[in-house]
User: What shape does this take?
Amino acid sequence: MRTTVCRRATFNAAHRLFNPKWDEETNNRIFGLCNNPNYHGHNYTLIVKITGDINPETGYVIDLKTVKDLINLLVIEPFDHNNLNLDVPDFKYLNPTAENIAKVIWEKFRNHLGITFDIKIQLHETENNFVEYPG
Amino acid sequence: MRTTVCRRATFNAAHRLFNPKWDEETNNRIFGLCNNPNYHGHNYTLIVKITGDINPETGYVIDLKTVKDLINLLVIEPFDHNNLNLDVPDFKYLNPTAENIAKVIWEKFRNHLGITFDIKIQLHETENNFVEYPG
Amino acid sequence: MRTTVCRRATFNAAHRLFNPKWDEETNNRIFGLCNNPNYHGHNYTLIVKITGDINPETGYVIDLKTVKDLINLLVIEPFDHNNLNLDVPDFKYLNPTAENIAKVIWEKFRNHLGITFDIKIQLHETENNFVEYPG
Amino acid sequence: MRTTVCRRATFNAAHRLFNPKWDEETNNRIFGLCNNPNYHGHNYTLIVKITGDINPETGYVIDLKTVKDLINLLVIEPFDHNNLNLDVPDFKYLNPTAENIAKVIWEKFRNHLGITFDIKIQLHETENNFVEYPG
Amino acid sequence: MRTTVCRRATFNAAHRLFNPKWDEETNNRIFGLCNNPNYHGHNYTLIVKITGDINPETGYVIDLKTVKDLINLLVIEPFDHNNLNLDVPDFKYLNPTAENIAKVIWEKFRNHLGITFDIKIQLHETENNFVEYPG
Amino acid sequence: MRTTVCRRATFNAAHRLFNPKWDEETNNRIFGLCNNPNYHGHNYTLIVKITGDINPETGYVIDLKTVKDLINLLVIEPFDHNNLNLDVPDFKYLNPTAENIAKVIWEKFRNHLGITFDIKIQLHETENNFVEYPG
Assistant: This one.
């Protein structure tokens, strides 16, 4: 039976939402306070969900220590205590909305996990706003 | 790729569970303490989940400010600090169980959102009891 | 050394805030939506904090099973799934604000616990509003 | 419309992860600290999710009181304040990973609920690690 | 009896920790990742605790609606979705550590509340780090 | 002004409550399920609260990185994934109740922090049971 194991982690980052092809007025209308040119920030909560078969020898779908190490390598090191727009190449040309951050994280995991695993990313930007990216 | 954005909100309401076609003894047997004729109440936590495509111009599936405004219009204003049985027409002839409240909220959102969006409602009645209505 | 042990519990109740000596307009101005005559409700979270000396034989300040039983007897049975204004004699002439509910609970515990214990009541009405009553 | 009702509960248990067919070195390499022969423990949080049709007479998919009673009978009584490896027959020959605990709980519910219900088990081992077993 | 009422709110902001009198190496040694010149950010959770006597007419220590409005005026409007170092005059010459942010908020409330009230500020910077400033 | 900084951490451990001077019947009567000779376990949540003056150069009472390192050294390394009764010398002759665990942790911190700091330990054994040890 396909079973899903989930690992939670947090990172803290600054960001700003805007579309460089638009003028300031349009950006303000669409993104409101999130377009502050001096940036604001969040404590992001990430949940990586990996679906596969339970290995009968270990009782694991995948060792969550492996998932923790991948989260550190792929997300915490490049994102934590950084400015997503300025410090993270993934968002040089991509607006760092929660949707796009989740998509970028999903792609990183897809490149590092075997094809027998399904991956789903849940990303909480605040206690009231979160997204789910199932690939 | 289809992506889901979620918005959380809370409202406080009184309610009572009963079926007017049944006698008091049957209502007490089926609904127990929830059938108290003087009502009891809850802090409901609502999560509205909307699935669609990420707009490449904004990086949004839908602006969560729009979802917040719809939650205020469709749920908070009519339900918050009210008695669901007495003050909310949706429950004049419908027992306000968590299942039915979620279904009513889903129908309100279905009527206000474009057909390209899928909608799922999660409603927490207590920290131990919650329901999911996917339409 | 004085040590504090704490026990958490929840109850669900309807209530309405108003002062029967005031006219409706004054009650609406002071209590706003909380004055809805049809009631609204909450999931209350109660934390009972009891301070005393650690018994060297047991390692306990007081057995939390005793505190749990007292919470059930003094609070859950009379308050849970009830209407505080109509069903609970303590609030027949006392406005069931969070402050007054905490005070009533403190007095009940003061009457049931030995004088060597200090008591503090914390009561959460919503996730954003809570009170502390230290006696 | 198919609707899901969910009930949360907690239990506290000791356990140890190891494969009796492997030598100590292999067990330590695969299970690390979780292989401590003196056991460690967790506050497990269980969420049982049951999907079915809303009964138009009650407004319930299933009475959550029934689900609560089943959780007590099938999970809390045999697992709570016990050592999963030593005290619970289900894990005499099965490694008590979160995946396997969830699977065992799913099977218990499958045997006790009518076939019209779908069942999904979510089990949190820590605040960072949890699993989902959909059967 | 002195009673404490508490109101919770959240705001999202960017910040950077550094002492302009120190060289870069010293700032990096003392503040580590928090000294990123491009800023990082947090979802701050604020709890304002106000202690006073229960007014026998209202049952309130102070109307929490008043506290909510003061939080919006004194904290949310100037801090939320801003860069504490660049956008908030309070931190032009003051390092925006959690301790200093709590102290600034306490002083704002002290200037706006009557002397009969005691004030205590609790500020959570992450789920693991928080401070309490009792004045 | 004296300010308090707080750091949260978690550890997972097995334990058993009993008094070796008592017979089995007395231990069962006093400690109930907690006296299971095969042990049970918890996810403990620890909050270390340190009170001192804000250093005007750093804006810190104490660097929370220092507190995090001390928690790892004094608590996580010796307690996490261990059996408190069998693996931790502090509890060889001391019943590992939440009260006593908090006291032991307080004493460890008292020995490692300068006398200008006040220390308070909060320890959560379950979501419903926690203790506070102020020294």
Summary: The helical segments of chain D are 24-31, 64-79, 84-87, 98-112.
